[in-house]
């Protein structure tokens, strides 16, 4: 019974393979791409849903959609290059290389995502794994030689989909929607040059024209449609210039000739071992579907604040029992957290001496650093530590602290070998989808008046250096596994008082 069933299955599979190989090459092509696309969606459904949520929340990560659209247009342009390839009948190398890359994609999603959990939205390694899975499946189902014909397209998509360079470019350009749109012009400029690059001169001219035309569209949007959503600035200039410039070059090259876009001959299938790699693609795709994305640590909670309770440029209300001794504003923070955002540092000192806080009878001093942004999702992308030069410090795992009124803080201990002090920090984040504020309370174990506190890094270059250092070192290399929460009681009490003083109940007074 089992033998006959086995024979029947092989015959059914052989019939399906014969039917597939008997199809016209123009039909087999979309079938293979359909399988790759379907399995990619299944394998990375959570990543796609997260990207949609990022876009809806106004995050900079929405630029990935621009990369996907431009990448598709570039692939169409490259496919029009007239090339002849020798037929390859042996697919063993393709299956071996593709399978190894599929396993690597599984390892990236299953191992590296957990290591960089705090910087998930900053690095989006799951998108790198998605790219690698699609590339590997293409090698298995099409072969190395056809995939290498689109090597520049695959390389462009990988380089431009990895979000860290894009974020750094936006920060360097000053932040804001115009800077985000200008950074995406890199996508269309590079894409146009590749699509039109049958010769170096043609590709260079196309890229330069693309930059100029895209810059003009971005300028018009900045002057006339400055209230357009962030995604519009990221998508419209880049995609429009790609379509217009690419279409113009196509019409110019085909002047006096038929204007047929899909006029390249589809070569017949040379080998019949395509089906051998399908089970591997499907199996790895299903395994990837079970890998869960790391939870976002710095989620912005929603608490009932009255309209106008949070405003950019407004310092945190100092609670009774503490007095303000100094205040300073760092306006360069808008490069990271969007237009109008700034960092306000308030130094507060306790009115009375608390022996539980200092055995020598000295009043304690705490730094209150607050950032208010109209782009709340940016708090998920850029954790608070990127504002400080703590590349050589060791941080503990966060400890959750209940501060009342539905607000939960995150308490961490830091051993800073640069300042030669240990300090505790309590992070409070509140707001809604329109505006949010992140408050950081800092206390050092040196209680002298001139005690050093960690300073904001002071601009773009130190911030970029901190991001790159974190990327190279990871979390495990700078984790304090024996934290000392010496000032947990003081920071928790001050945090609760700040929540009470800052929170304005709907329809009532403080």
From TrEMBL:
Membrane-crossing residue ranges in chain numbering: 33-52, 58-81, 93-112, 118-144, 151-172, 178-197, 204-225, 231-253, 274-293
Keywords: Membrane, Transmembrane, Transmembrane helix
Keyword Transmembrane recorded: yes
UniProt name for this protein: MFS transporter
Organism of this sequence: Mycolicibacterium arenosum
């Amino acid at each position: 019974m089992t033998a006959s069933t086995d024979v029947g299955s092989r015959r059914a599979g052989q019939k399906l393979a014969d039917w597939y190989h008997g199809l016209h090459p123009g039909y087999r092509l979309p079938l293979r791409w359909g399988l790759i696309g379907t399995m990619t969606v299944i394998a990375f459904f959570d990543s796609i849903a997260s990207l949609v949520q990022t876009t809806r929340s106004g995050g900079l990560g929405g630029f990935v959609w621009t990369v996907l659209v431009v990448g598709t247009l570039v692939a169409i342009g490259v496919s029009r290059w007239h090339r002849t390839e020798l037929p390859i009948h042996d697919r063993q190398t393709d299956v071996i290389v593709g399978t190894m890359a599929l396993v690597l994609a599984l390892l990236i999603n299953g191992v590296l995502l957990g290591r960089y959990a705090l910087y998930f939205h900053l690095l989006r390694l799951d998108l790198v794994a998605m790219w690698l899975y699609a590339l590997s499946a293409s090698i298995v189902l099409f072969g190395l030689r056809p995939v290498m014909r689109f090597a520049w397209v695959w390389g462009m998509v990988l380089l431009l989909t990895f979000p860290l360079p894009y974020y750094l470019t936006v920060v360097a350009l000053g932040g804001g929607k115009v800077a985000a749109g200008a950074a995406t012009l890199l996508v269309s400029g590079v894409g146009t040059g590749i699509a039109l690059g049958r010769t170096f001169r043609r590709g260079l001219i196309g890229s330069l024209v693309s930059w100029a035309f895209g810059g003009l569209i971005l300028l018009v949007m900045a002057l006339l449609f400055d209230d357009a959503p962030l995604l519009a600035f990221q998508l419209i200039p880049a995609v429009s210039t790609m379509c217009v410039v690419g279409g113009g070059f196509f019409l110019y090259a085909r002047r006096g000739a038929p204007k047929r876009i899909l006029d390249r001959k589809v070569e017949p299938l040379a080998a019949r071992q395509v089906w051998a790699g399908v089970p591997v693609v499907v199996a790895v795709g299903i395994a990837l579907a079970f890998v869960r994305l790391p939870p976002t640590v710095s989620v912005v909670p929603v608490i009932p604040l009255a309209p106008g309770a949070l405003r950019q440029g407004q310092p945190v209300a100092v609670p009774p029992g503490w007095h303000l001794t100094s205040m300073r504003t760092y306006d360069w923070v808008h490069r990271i957290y969007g237009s109008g955002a700034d960092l306000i540092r308030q130094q507060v000192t306790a009115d009375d001496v608390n022996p539980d806080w200092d055995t020598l009878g000295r009043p304690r001093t705490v730094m209150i650093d607050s950032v208010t942004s109209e782009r709340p999702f940016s708090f998920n992308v850029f954790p608070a530590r990127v504002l400080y030069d703590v590349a050589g410090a060791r941080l503990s795992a966060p400890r959750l602290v209940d501060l009342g009124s539905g607000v939960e803080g995150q308490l961490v201990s830091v051993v800073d070998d640069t300042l030669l002090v240990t300090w505790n920090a309590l992070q409070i984040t509140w707001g809604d989808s329109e505006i949010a504020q992140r408050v950081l309370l800092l206390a050092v174990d040196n209680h002298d008046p001139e005690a050093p506190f960690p300073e904001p890094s002071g601009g773009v270059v130190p911030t970029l250096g901190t991001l790159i250092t974190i990327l190279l070192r990871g979390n495990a290399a700078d984790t304090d596994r024996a934290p000392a929460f010496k000032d947990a009681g003081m920071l928790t009490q001050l945090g609760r008082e700040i929540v009470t003083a800052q929170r304005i109940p709907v329809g009532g007074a403080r």
